[in-house]
Amino acid sequence: MNWDLLKELSDAVGLPGAEQDVREILRREISNLSDDIKIDAMGNLIAHIPGDGPKLMLDAHIDEVGFIVSHIDDDGFIRVIPMGGIDPRVFYAQRIKIFGRETLTGVVGALPPHITRSDPSQRDKVIPIEDCFIDPGMPAEKVKSLVRVGDLASFDRECIETEDSLIGKAFDDRVGVFIMIEGTKMAKEIGCDLYIVGAVQEEGGLRGAGPAAFEVKPQIGLSLEGTVANDVPGAPEHKKFAQQGKGPEIRLSDAGFYAHRDWSFFIADVAEKYEIPHQIIVKKIGATNAAVIQTTGIGTKTTALSIPVRYIHSPQGIVRKSDVEAGVKLVAAVIEEAKNFSEL
Ligand SMILES: [Zn+2]
Asked: What is the pTM of this model?
């Protein structure tokens, strides 16, 4: 596997509405596969690889959770609001990159413990992200000359590779982008009329994928995602959902949709045929672009295929290499086999 590409994708910054760096990596990687690559008004990348068979839209979102500057005070401390769902407990003491006139690095600060300890109402309180402050460690005038309200910011973390895993900041959804790219490259034949979509602004409420699906008008849709792996100490057995080391998740339900059942089980059958580990998951939390692809235009038979990520939406997610490899193989197999999906 080309782990350097996954590292590059995780380290690239693509905040909602400013996904250009990730989009360019996607464009570069698929430019040999498609000579019809468009960018629409919202910034979605839509690439067409013609073939015989049903019109299949693969989707992976190219944005990630991050922050937008909301206020700069007279002492040069910067306030941000989160873009997407970020647990405030993971924010304190992080290094944050702020993309102002220059790129600055700041640290998330808070009142020192000897002050909060004396005030019981403050002691164990988790401070909302918008009430924390980022300290760029420079004079206030300099901060004000470099940073404006509306500038974007992200976790400052470099992806690392271990023997079994990668640890990085943006596997939601760069691991989806990765399996879309590498799965398409791996496919021995294109058994469908294939569209590859890098969708913008998923973290702001599944905003880009609908217009992209409206343009493509697919018959079948497959969202490729990084999803929550809850297989950690203390999680009840029936709420672990996708577990690491068991392959990609084929999702039948979440808070946003009920998947097309025949299409979902077709993908599970393909996984069986190719002996690719996979897990079928039913839950009522979370949502993916599959929810909007399903209901755009006259509707699309849609499901979602996701790689389990521990500590998702934090500066340090973990993905298991074996799950990512299985995801790449399954995407390749689905592209080859889609022509045999008869429920159209
Ligand atoms: Zn996602």
From this structure: 0.96
